[in-house]
Amino acid sequence: MYFAKRFLYIILLSFIMSLLFCKFELFDASAKQKDYTISPNTKPLNKKMQGYSTYTKETKNYYTIRSYLEELEKKGGGKLVLKKGKYSITNTLFVPSNVTIQLNSGVILKKSMNTGSKNTLKPSYSMFQLVAPSVVKKIGMEYDYNGSTNISIISDGKATIDLNHQKNVNGIIAGHNENLLIKNIQFLNANEGYFIQLAGTKHATIQNNTFLHQHSSSKPVISLDTAEEKDGNYQVSWSMYDGTPNVHTTIEQNYFYDIYQAISSKNATDGKPQNKIVIRKNKIAHASSNMIVMNNWRLSTVEDNTLEDAKGYGVYVLGSYKPVIRLNQLKKMKIPVKLAEYTSNGTVSENTVTLSNKKALASNKGEQLKEYAIPIEHDQFLEKIEITNLKDLNKAVYTVTPKSVTLNKEYLLRNSYTDQTKQYYALRSYMEQLEKQGGGKLVFKKGKYTITNVLYVPSNVTLEFEDGVEIIKGDHTGSTTINPSNSIFQLIRPSLSKKERVVGGHKGEKNIRFIGKGKVIFDLKFKLFSFAIIMGHNKNVQIQNIQFKNMNGGHFIEMDASENVIIRDNKFFNSIPSARHVKEAINLDTPDKTTLGWSSEWSNFDRTANKRILILNNQFKNLDRAIGTHKYSEGNPHKQIVIYGNIIDTTRNDAIRIMNWMNPTIAENVIKNVAKGDPEKRGILSSGAIHPKIQYNTFEKVGRPIQFIAWQNTGPGEQYKEIKDKLSNAEKELLKTNDLIDTEEVFARINNKYLEYNNPEKILLLNWR
Around Cβ 235, how many Cβ atoms within 10 Å? Predict the structure, then answer.
């Protein structure tokens, strides 16, 4: 037992010592690292180089930079800063691990094929190779991802690597490297060579560079290939040709112009695909071939790029696994993207493409294309994915008909896209586009539009409906993956519609108009608990000249937490009686979780009331109620509600229900045929009105023209204190200006004690007959 414990103690001590030793080595290597700054006039750090017969005015910059890179290898890494100026590079510079080469603004590294030493030193065909100087002459030394690591070639301003039109010269060759960054460099003038060649690298980032003027018939600007010697594509003696692919390569925010190809894998190696390549937010223009070639790539992404003017394809995909190609703009080419079968040594390789990949393809947009579709070849069958024409977007005014198709072609691939939902998806795509561009006008041409699901309306949008338009609430989607909604329009931007508690106060969507030209109908088709328009937290909304009809248990307009709203010259006709006859055509409420009067989860339910609402010159007929509130939020009254010049005919309950309104005005309205003359029903029923002005209205065949009663919520919201009306003497006098025709009572009742209705204060209304 003693010896066993002693043995374990020795092992543990050895382990701790080894950790300390490793830590010391790492610290020591880091301590040795150094930063150097040089200029075009700096002499080599290695003084012996100046005595070389090959050290000439043409090679002095090469030898200087080389000497510092060799020193950095000895130091374990560091930074080499090149000051502004022109550096002539005749031969390859080999870069070791843990090195940053910073090219200050104004630096020009220019490739020269003149060494000035006759045949003693021949110029090389590359400017940089990312391998340690000590390894260069060792054949097949680098393999897998075990080469030089943590290398950056960057600029803090405008620096240039100019290949000077030298034939077959490459800019940067990377093989078997890990953690590579090339950033903010301008690359110029390649001639049958690569600006950058990556072979078997991991975590390489090429970012914010410019690549200009490449003359080639076979080589791309950036080559992504396996570490194999195929067709002379990748040839460096220090590399083992083990077929190592690139993995986790990011190429982003670069600009390519006047090139052969931007990014490409020339050859495919079976079983060794380029893996997880990301190409995004680049601009590529004027290519004499295909711009991007994905040859045997796996789980790679090409997104949000702008590709313009290619003689070949924008993106050419061969034998790749689940490629994600999305949100790109492709202009001036015959076919934007093509996914083709690939034949190698008699074997046909198809692309593996899922439904999700197809939807991504549909998100691309094009302009000046021969065909606005992306072909996918598989098993000698050709499938085409439609994409959107950019000319159809970013208009001040859009026009739709019942036959208009969706702007978002991804919707065409959804299982929920059916004959019943296609109009919904078409209109939804326009709303989403209007949000992206900050607003505009959508004109509906004559015809029937069946809307199965909610259309979310963003700010600064006018919806104009021409004569003969019918907006119909659809109740069947024809799909098991999507159920119909209860509303047609909600005034919230599409991007926020599925989020919770993101809008409050009057800070939601604004400047929205629904305008009818001629006879325009919104038909709810008596769908249970349905709504035509739901607005909440909105500002500056206008709804004009629309015929709303056929309600069942919902509201034509649900209005919560909105400011500066005008509802004028509309018609609200026909509803199925609700259980208690309390469903208003226009409902004014607060977004309050406790009262259950509002259910849209994008609201933060802050109980904000409505403010400055004008309901003008509308007609209401055959409804439970015309206008009203049925729950209140204590301390949050609706303010400055004006109901003027409307005709309300045939309601089953009180025509107007005021509840917790401050400074409302109800004037010049005609209210008739209320509850078949029921003597206990009112033309206007008010609770908690603060200084109301009810004047010059006409009440005909109404039991009680006006009544004020104290009130308290029951059930949801019952925690709030009771509310009472407050009328000044002047406001009581205004009540006398109302006209009565064939009413059961000729006075206004004021009951200021909750649930006590005997002995009310009575204001005699003088104008009755």
Answer: 12
- Residues sharing a CB contact under 8 Å with residue 470, sequence separation 6 or more, in sequence order: 447, 448, 449, 520, 521, 523
Here the tokens at position 546 are 């629309």
- Confidence (pTM): 0.85
CB under 8 Å to 2, separation ≥6 — which residues? none
Inter-residue contact 683 to 720 (CB < 8 Å): no
Name the residue type at position 632: Y
User: Please, where are the H alpha helices in 466-557?
Assistant: none
> In sequence order, what are the residues at sequence separation of 6 or more whose Cβ sits closer than 8 angstroms to the Cβ of residue 287?
256, 259, 260, 261, 262, 309, 310, 311, 312
How does 424-437 read in b/e, with b if 16+ C-beta sit within 10 Å?
bbbbbbbbbbbbee
pLDDT in tens, 502-526: 999 999 999 999 999 999 999 999 9
Checking if the pLDDT of 673 tops 70, the result is yes
Looking at residue 379, its pLDDT comes to: 77
Q: How far apart are the first and last CA of the chain?
A: 116
Tokens 């190409």 correspond to what residue? 279
Neighbour-count burial for 663-698, b at 16+ CB within 10 Å, e otherwise: ebbbbebbbbbbbeeeeebbbbbbbbbbebbbbebb
Is 589 strand, coil or helix?
Answer: strand
pLDDT tens column, 34-70: 899 999 999 999 999 999 999 999 999 999 999 999 9
- H/E element, 25: helix 2-32
Largest CA distance in the chain: 124
Q: Quick one: pLDDT at residue 476?
A: 97
User: Quick one: pLDDT at residue 12?
Assistant: 52
Neighbouring C-alpha atoms within 13 Å toward the C-beta of 295: 20
- Asked if residue 29 lies in contact with residue 72, where contact means CB atoms within 8 angstroms, the answer is no
Structure-block tokens of residue 705: 């023209």
pLDDT band for position 232 (50/70/90)? low
Residues 6+ away with beta carbon under 8 Å from 8:
none
Question: 336-374: per-residue pLDDT in tens?
Answer: 999 998 776 666 678 999 999 999 999 999 999 999 999
Closest by CA to 473, choosing from 456, 487, 492, 490, is 487
Residue type, 379: D
Q: Which residue has the tokens 């299982």?
A: 415
User: Contact at 8 Å (CB) between 371 and 335?
Assistant: yes
